[in-house]
Design goal:
The chain contains 15 helices and 3 strands. By secondary structure, the protein is mostly helical. The chain has 3 domains: 48 residues; 95 residues, Up-down Bundle (Receptor-associated Protein); 246 residues, Up-down Bundle (Receptor-associated Protein). The longest helix has 56 residues. It is flat and about 90 Å long.
Length: 407
């Protein structure tokens, strides 16, 4: 019976069972683009009488290509090209050995386009969600200059540093978010289930309730009656704000400016943006991308509208003949140390190296500031939650204390 081939470049899960040379029964799963490859792998493993069937897509969990996947792939491809492995073979080896089926499918698609005659940057440009303009431009510069392996190595460092910084911020924010979520759930349980029991008890006292108790009882009644309305309002506000940020440049500009003015958080955003600017520009300089052209990609990667506009103004000044450090100083967005490091780099012809040092410095600064912010937020959040939950408990016991005082 002829083997059924899966659709080209689509990665499926194949379930197999068979016996080895000693007669021991074996089974397992293999992810592949076609059944023939699975059978070939089983023969190499010494599996005899193999029965192979494709697992239904209904039972497969669809994975996404993450930024970490792209960074890992870039590092692997740089290493293999540096070792002299042909590009098509490199894609085949990396793709077949990847744990993420979606990433394997992506790499097999790019491999097919490269085999069809496209250059690597042209094939990557067909997948803008996974490979942004900055990535494609750097690969194009590397191909043009004949230093693709070197550019991919620097690009992998850039992606790994960026991902490490994002992971650090996410992990620092997880604990406060988890505490706030648990606090909200506990408060909701008290308002919905506990306080109504006390309310029925207070009705037999025959006396006016203290002001705090009356407020909490009214709050409980309002929450039980309107909780769904409040939740829908919050969800709608978040969705509207997100859509406005995505679609309205004026709202995005306003929000980015407000964030930069928030104590401590604004400083973290500012230093993180400068670190991203320095790291991106350093990588593009090292790849040989012309400065004016590089500045446009750097502006798009800034992540903050204020800095995006400022970097574009720097680009315009550089295009008219001004030096980079003078243009950066005129923008008013960069610290004196950053401008001085760039000036030294321009004098010594090592701008990419100096910008890399700036990026390292500011990434360490962001790391330390995130740790400080976490250490400040923990006691603050616990204090606020303690006041809220403790206030609810005290409000419920005040009438009991008042009744005990009477007797």
């Amino acid at each position: 019976m002829a083997a059924r081939a899966a659709p080209a470049n689509r990665i499926n899960t194949y379930v197999w069972n068979g016996v080895d040379r000693t007669g021991k029964r074996l089974s397992g799963q293999i992810k592949s683009a076609d059944e023939l490859f699975v059978r070939d792998q089983l023969r190499k493993r010494g599996v005899l009488q193999a029965r192979v069937r494709r697992k239904s897509a209904l039972f497969e969990k669809r994975q996404k290509v993450t930024a970490a996947d792209i960074a890992y792939f870039t590092r692997q491809l740089a290493t293999m090209l540096e070792a002299g492995v042909p590009m098509v073979s490199s894609f085949d080896i990396i793709g077949r050995g990847h744990d993420n089926p979606a990433m394997t499918e992506l790499l097999m698609d790019i491999k097919g386009q490269v085999e069809g005659g496209l250059s690597l940057h042209e094939a990557l440009a067909k997948h803008p969600r996974q490979f942004g303009e900055l990535y494609v431009n750097l690969v194009a510069a590397g191909e043009q200059a004949g230093i693709l392996d070197d550019v991919l190595g620097k690009l992998s460092v850039f992606l790994e540093k960026t991902e490490a910084l994002k992971r650090k911020v996410r992990s620092a924010m997880f604990y406060p978010a988890a505490v706030v979520a648990v606090g909200f759930i506990v408060t909701a349980i008290l308002l919905v289930f506990v306080i109504p029991q006390f309310e029925s008890l207070f009705q037999g006292f025959g006396a006016d309730l203290p002001a705090l108790t009356r407020f909490v009882v009214d709050l409980s009644e309002g929450f039980r009656q309107w909780w769904w309305s409040a939740m829908l309002t919050v969800i709608a506000a978040v969705v509207i704000a997100f859509q406005a940020y995505q679609r309205s440049e004026r709202f995005r500009d306003f929000l980015d400016r407000v964030v930069l003015r928030i104590p401590l958080i604004g400083e973290i955003v500012r230093k993180g943006t400068v670190a991203r600017y320095a790291r991106t520009l350093s990588t593009m300089f090292a790849a040989g991308v012309p400065l004016v052209e590089a500045m446009e990609s750097v502006a798009r990667a800034a992540g903050n509208v204020v800095y995006e506009k400022g970097i574009r103004s720097v680009r315009d000044e550089v295009a008219t003949g001004s030096s980079l450090h003078v243009s950066m100083e005129n923008s008013g967005l960069f610290a004196h140390m950053v401008n001085q490091m760039v000036a030294i780099g321009e004098e010594s012809g090592s701008v990419d190296h100096m910008l890399g040092k700036v990026a390292d410095f500011y990434e360490d600064e962001v790391d330390q500031m995130v740790n400080r912010l976490t250490s400040l937020m923990e006691p603050l959040i616990m204090s606020v939650l303690g006041v809220i939950v403790g206030g609810l408990v005290i409000a419920m016991y005040l009438p009991i204390f008042k009744l005990a005082a009477v007797f």
